[in-house]
Amino acid sequence: MKIERLSSDKIRIFLTFDDLTERGIQKEDMWQEIPKVHDLFTEMMDQAYTELGFDATGPLAVEVFALPAQGMVVIVTRGKYDQHLGTMNEDDLADEIYEMEVTLEETDFIAYSFKDFETLIEAAHTLSQNVTEAGRLYHYKDQWVFTLDPAEVDMSKHAALIAVLAEFGDATSVTEAMLEEYGKVVMPENAVQVICEHFKRND
């Protein structure tokens, strides 16, 4: 579970499928009002407070984005604290903390980050066995982020491609919009082919 602050009132939490499995939660459970999901959310908010000092008091808007292979991204936005709550007792306040508006979306966007370019070169040469005319490369927060639009590749090859990306890189929760706004586009298209043509893998 990775947590990062986006603004004073907004955080992003990245949950891997292992995080969910460990807690006995299926992807489909995330938008249901069941105890184990509530427990997971409580755990996330406790960790957010411990790591970032994010106080989840008041109504929260929760957006859950299901990624095809990496896991889930949960965006939590804190509403404005109602001054009238100051007169409530602690039991009432506890109920208010988890007054959530949850929306769920699925995205096909696949993104993996690489700390060094040499590792990315190795990954690209391995990927080229299954696909060449695909991929987009960004530089974002001192890392190389390789993204893949599943529409560019054969559905039957998705699992193999993701297995390679997971072997060499790290699944990242960054969104396409974040990359476009804050990252630098290094290779706008056919990143696999471009890397393989210009960079040789280490023998």
Automatic annotation (TrEMBL):
Signal peptide: none annotated. This is Adaptor protein. Belongs to the MecA family. NCBIfam families: PRK02899.1 (NF002781). It comes from Paenibacillus bovis. Pfam families: MecA.
